[in-house]
Amino acid sequence: MRAYRDQYASLFNEGRNVVLIGISNDSVEELASWLKDDDFPFLFASDADNDGATYAAFGGGLRDNDMVDSRAVIVVGPDQTIAGVIPQFNQVDPAAYDELAAIIDDVTPEPVDP
Fold this sequence. Notes:
CATH class: Alpha Beta
CATH superfamily: Glutaredoxin
Order of helices and strands: HEHEHEEH
Distance between the termini: 35 Å
């Protein structure tokens, strides 16, 4: 997610009024420890104590081991509805950012110059 953070402004025009939520089975304490020194322009959520119920509420599914999909990303659009769910966001794969950009562009297209 550091790569996304570092590309946030240039790739997605400051997110264009979308909210990203990274969700995992990591505990709140683990996430807080990891995020302590990083400045991320998006949210993280823990589903460690909810048996996947939080992620399922956003439209996500569970793996065979009943854990949240690996590094799942939820995209909430400007209208506050779920614009997309990326079940396994691979932060080092450029294609992951193409998929994320496509979801963001779909709900917040860039203005066209006249």
